[in-house]
Amino acid sequence: MTPSGNRSGSVHFPRDVAVIKEDWTMLGPILAGVTYVYVFLRTWAPSNIVLDLIRTRSGLKWGVPAMGIAVPYLAIAYWCTTLINGGGPGWLHLVVLWGIWNGIKFLAIGPVSLVQLTIVRVREHRARTAPAGR
């Protein structure tokens, strides 16, 4: 007997395999679209540009003050939530998600930049105080 249960010797795959193959062919264009959107937003979105500048050596000191940028983002999210609850359009949910996401990014950059700044300063101190032969 063969895997498909017939005696002819030919292998017949179940119909599910064809469905899986069709699903995989859709994955390529979806992945390409997601990659394009990611690169576009990573390059041109103002919040990502600011966060990239904060992650540089000279920008690490601005991490904690940049946490204040989260306040307007969260205020926009709150304001849109009140509009939605008052019968506003449903697309405002996207604005709420955008505001919350950027607010979280800016709230998180403060502690992250402090840790990174501490690590960099310790490494710089060790490099200054290390003997010249090392």
Helix-strand blueprint:
Layout: H1 15-44, H2 46-54, H3 63-66, H4 70-85, H5 92-129
Q: Key terms for this structure?
A:
single chain; 134 residues
Principal-axis shape equals: flat
Write the element-wise H/E pattern from the N-terminal end onward.
Answer: HHHHH
- The helix/strand class is mainly alpha
Counting copies of identical and different chains, the oligomeric state is: single chain
Give the low-pLDDT segments. none
Q: How far apart lie the N and C ends?
A: 71 Å
Overview of the molecule:
- There is one protein chain.
- With about 130 residues, this protein is mainly α.
- Helix content is about 70%, strand content about 0%.
- The protein has five helices and no strands.
- Helix 4 (about 70-85) runs antiparallel to helix 5 (about 90-130).
- The model has no long low-confidence stretch (mean pLDDT about 90).
In short:
The protein is mainly alpha-helical. It is 72% helix and 0% strand.
